[in-house]
Amino acid sequence: MVTQIGITAGEIWHYLDKHGESHLKKLLSDIEKDENLILMSLGWLAREGHISLTQSADKTMVSLRTDKA
């Protein structure tokens, strides 16, 4: 399972690198993996400091971090 999470995290990273900031719902529909696997991979990327998640009202946006603070 950890391997699948890592592979999916890589797919998410490449998706965001190509498309830029994305609405979470769009990311979930564009990456053809199980939603739970995508969410676990997003958690991994967030914990490692590779992505930013921002929430406002009814939407969550995902983007690659440009600041590696």
Core attributes:
69 residues, Arc Repressor Mutant, subunit A, 3-stranded antiparallel β-sheet, globular
What does this structure look like?
- The chain has helices at about 1-20, 25-30, 35-45, and strands at about 20-25, 50-55, 60-65.
- It has about 70 residues and is α+β, with helices and mostly antiparallel strands.
- It has one domain (about 1-65): Arc Repressor Mutant, subunit A (Orthogonal Bundle).
- The longest helix is centred in the N-terminal third of the chain and has 18 residues, at about 1-20.
- The radius of gyration is 11 Å and the shape is globular.
What spatial order of strands do you see in the largest sheet?
Answer: 1-3-2
Distance N terminus to C terminus?
29 Å
CATH-assigned homologous superfamily: Winged helix-like DNA-binding domain superfamily/Winged helix DNA-binding domain
Sheet/helix structural class = alpha+beta
The third-level CATH topology is Arc Repressor Mutant, subunit A
> Which ranges are low-confidence, i.e. pLDDT below 50, for 5 or more consecutive residues?
none
Percentage of β-strand residues: 15-25%
- Give the CATH architecture: Orthogonal Bundle
Number of helices, counting only DSSP H or I runs of 4 residues or more? 3
CATH level 1 name: Mainly Alpha
Which bin fits the share of residues in helices? Answer: 55-70%
Query: Globular, elongated, flat, extended or rod-shaped: what is the shape?
Result: globular
Nearest-integer average pLDDT: 94
* SSE succession: HEHHEE
Q: Write down the domain tally.
A: 1
Number of strands: 3
The description of the largest β-sheet is: 3 strands, antiparallel
Radius of gyration: 11 Å
